[in-house]
Design goal:
Layout lengths: L1 E6 L2 E4 L4 E9 L6 E7 L6 E7 L5 E3 L7 E6 L4 E6 L8 E8 L15 E2 L3 E6 L1
Parallel strand pairs: 2-11
Antiparallel strand pairs: 1-3, 3-8, 4-5, 4-9, 5-6, 7-8, 9-10, 9-11
Length: about 130
């Protein structure tokens, strides 16, 4: 049984920073990729960022590129999302996800991910 637990959400100010963490436990070794998705009220869940576990290759949505950074700590089975220059439109529930196998071209496809965290709320005030 794999569990993903997010932390670090909360209230941020426009222009400020927040850092999210996602710790994997259980049978968590061997992930091909981990990613972050988000869902704003009344909107579909959307891709934010992903990292391929073995190579460290990173991918970002255009809306967060140059502002957010995804990273991993393999020893801790943890992935992070450093969010800088926050905008009110970044307000959403952020979900961590992990894939057992993933073609690099599918990094943004939520249906290719096998495990999900419970989500953490990020609210950015203007």
């Amino acid at each position: 049984q794999v569990q993903l637990v997010e932390s670090g959400g909360g209230l941020g100010q426009a222009g400020g920073s927040l850092r999210l963490s996602c710790a994997a436990s259980g049978r968590s070794f061997g992930f091909a990729a981990m990613g972050w998705f988000r869902q704003a009220p009344g909107k579909e869940r959307e891709f934010v960022a992903a990292i391929l576990w073995s190579s460290g290759q990173r991918y970002y949505a255009d809306s967060v590129k140059d502002r957010f950074t995804i990273s991993r700590d393999s020893a801790k089975n943890t992935v992070y999302l450093q969010m800088n220059t926050l905008k009110p439109e970044d307000t959403a529930v952020y979900f961590c996800a992990a894939a057992r196998s993933l073609h690099y071209s599918s990094y943004g496809n939520q249906y290719k991910y096998d495990y999900w965290g419970q989500g953490t709320q990020v609210t950015v005030s203007s």
